[in-house]
């Protein structure tokens, strides 16, 4: 049945379900989002509108050509060289227009904290609210440590890593520029000179509200890991390294955000205790890289399982949103004045409420009345409404899911592969984008190094270790990231799966050797150690 919810019913046509997820599930480019995050960090959680004309690249290039700090780019040949340098190292261009036939400035590559001065990317809607979630998650972590000035501390965290050679000025911090003193690499210097041609908006928006996630265990690790990375490793890294590791970390945590939320929501709906400790994802990652082998089959099964979890989440989040909306029409409407986590539980508790079922039955009739008389769509809705054996709530959700299925499920898959980083160098997900059977959890070197760095952070988050027994490392990967290497997930356990995992452990140790962070005193598993892959502050 090719059925869609009538466009006139805008509240039902929406795919946003903030009561479950504080983001919009759709394709997301983490690289594109980083500039916005840096702006929030410097501006104490605020951002400004953009005055930049994304079609005026040649004007900005001409301004750069006239800069007194540039020598040797005279004439057409010099202009072409500078143009090529900017396009290849600093600027990422995008296609725009209904036919995607215009090339415009998209965003600047993450080379400096000053990049927000560009006003790019001009449209932040493609960040799917993930930038806001990240900042608020970081703020939640900093506040939990008893900080007297969380926004200032966040600014210092990011500036210590990404602010080399930059003077951000004073509030409203609209015109960050090169400080003309500190030595920076040549690409960063060119980016800073290029940025001087942009006029940023002086009007910052309102300060962001405090984080109040519906599923804290899905959100808190994002902020906690970002703080640990910046505080314990950031100042010791080059800007390029720091951006790569930050992108890898954000991608993984955003990939797992709906997967963890889905498990929690499903447990609540089934009247079971939700996951309480550790990371429940059980993502088996493959290092053998042999198609058709036992390890390859295991990770392929995990990808399919997680796609199915995402599919089931679609129905569950529409159900919870509908219950919450219907509650507002009850004779005695619930206040929902607790935390987001408490409100989620309160909404779930309404799933069998007969008054809610009646309200949703009325809404279902409204959908039917909005459809063309005698159409197949109207007959479908009427058939569901008059069917036996289902409650009013179940009938309404069946129609709502069917009406939003195509768009909703497509968008969720886009979130999965984009946050999985299948097209990025720092991704956990590998394979061919347009061929789903090829998708595997197989981390790149950048992703693996990032995971290792965080595993060396002690539970208190205040220091790192220089060395870990490999057995302890595997435990931390499982507990903190839900990543399995040496044994299969519970659902896929078998003799052949265990054999594949044993081979995978051997391949993992070889990968660690190539990264230069493995020390084996003997073949004894208890005498094998992994060294920290990056220098740390402490």
What is the succession of H and E elements? HHHHEEHHEEHHHEHHHHHEEHEHEHEE
Which oligomeric form is depicted?
Answer: single chain
Mean pLDDT: 95
Determine the N-to-C terminus distance.
60 Å
How would you sum up this structure, described in words?
With 538 residues, the chain is mainly alpha-helical. The chain folds into three domains: 10-19 and 310-412, no CATH class; 30-212, no CATH class; 242-308 and 422-531, no CATH class. It contains 17 helices and eleven strands. A three-stranded antiparallel beta sheet has the order 8-11-10. The chain has a two-stranded antiparallel sheet with strand order 1-2. Helix 9 (239-269) packs across helix 15. It is globular, with a radius of gyration of 25 Å. It starts with 9 loop residues before the first helix and ends in a 7-residue tail after the last strand. The model has no long low-confidence stretch (mean pLDDT 95).
């Amino acid at each position: 049945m090719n059925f869609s919810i009538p466009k006139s019913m805008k509240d039902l046509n929406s795919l946003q379900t903030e009561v479950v997820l504080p983001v919009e599930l759709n394709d997301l480019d983490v690289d594109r989002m980083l500039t916005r995050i840096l702006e929030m960090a410097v501006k104490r959680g605020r951002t400004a509108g953009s005055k930049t004309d994304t079609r005026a690249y040649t004007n900005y290039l001409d301004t750069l050509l006239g800069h007194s700090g540039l020598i040797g780019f005279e004439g057409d040949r010099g202009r072409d060289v500078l143009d090529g340098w900017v396009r290849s190292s600093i600027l990422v261009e995008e296609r725009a227009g209904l036919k995607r036939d215009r090339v415009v400035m998209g965003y600047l590559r993450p080379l400096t904290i000053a990049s927000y001065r560009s006003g790019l990317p001009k449209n932040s809607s493609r960040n799917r609210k993930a930038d806001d979630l990240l900042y608020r998650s970081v703020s939640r972590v900093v506040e939990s440590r008893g900080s007297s000035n969380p926004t200032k501390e966040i600014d210092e965290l990011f500036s210590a890593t990404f602010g080399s050679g930059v003077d951000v000025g004073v509030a409203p911090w609209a015109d960050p520029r090169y400080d003309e003193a500190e030595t920076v690499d040549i690409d960063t210097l060119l980016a800073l000179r290029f940025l001087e041609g942009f006029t940023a908006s002086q009007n910052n928006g309102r300060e962001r509200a405090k984080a109040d996630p519906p599923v804290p265990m899905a959100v808190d690790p994002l902020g906690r890991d970002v703080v640990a990375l910046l505080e314990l490793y950031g100042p010791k890294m080059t800007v390029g390294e720091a951006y790569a590791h930050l992108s890898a970390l954000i991608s993984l945590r955003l990939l797992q955000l709906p997967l963890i939320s889905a498990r929690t929501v499903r447990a609540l709906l089934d009247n079971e205790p939700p996951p309480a400790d550790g990371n429940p994802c059980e993502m088996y990652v493959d290092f053998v890289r042999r198609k058709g082998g036992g390890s390859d089959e295991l990770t392929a099964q995990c990808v399919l399982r997680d796609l199915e979890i995402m599919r089931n989440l679609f129905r569950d989040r529409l159900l919870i949103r509908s219950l919450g909306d219907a509650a507002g029409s009850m004779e005695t409407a619930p206040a929902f004045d607790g935390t987001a986590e408490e409100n989620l539980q309160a909404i779930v508790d309404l799933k069998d409420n007969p008054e809610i079922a009646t309200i949703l039955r009325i809404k279902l009739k409204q959908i039917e009345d909005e459809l063309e008389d005698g159409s197949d769509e109207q007959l479908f809705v009427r058939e569901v409404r008059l069917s036996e054996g289902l409650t009013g709530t179940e009938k309404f959700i069946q129609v709502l899911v069917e009406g939003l299925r195509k768009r909703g499920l497509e968008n969720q898959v886009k979130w999965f592969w984009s946050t999985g980083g299948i097209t990025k160098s720092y991704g956990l997900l590998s394979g061919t984008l347009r061929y789903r059977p090829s998708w595997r959890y197989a981390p790149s070197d950048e992703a693996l190094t990032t995971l290792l760095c965080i595993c060396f952070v002690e539970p208190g988050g205040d220091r790192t270790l220089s060395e870990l027994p490999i057995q302890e490392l595997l435990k931390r990967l499982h507990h903190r990231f839900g990543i399995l290497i040496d044994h299969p997930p519970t659902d896929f356990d078998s003799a052949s799966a265990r054999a594949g995992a044993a081979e995978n452990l051997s391949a993992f140790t070889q990968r660690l050797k190539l990264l230069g962070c493995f020390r084996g005193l003997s073949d004894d598993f208890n005498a094998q150690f992994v060294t920290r892959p990056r220098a740390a502050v402490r």
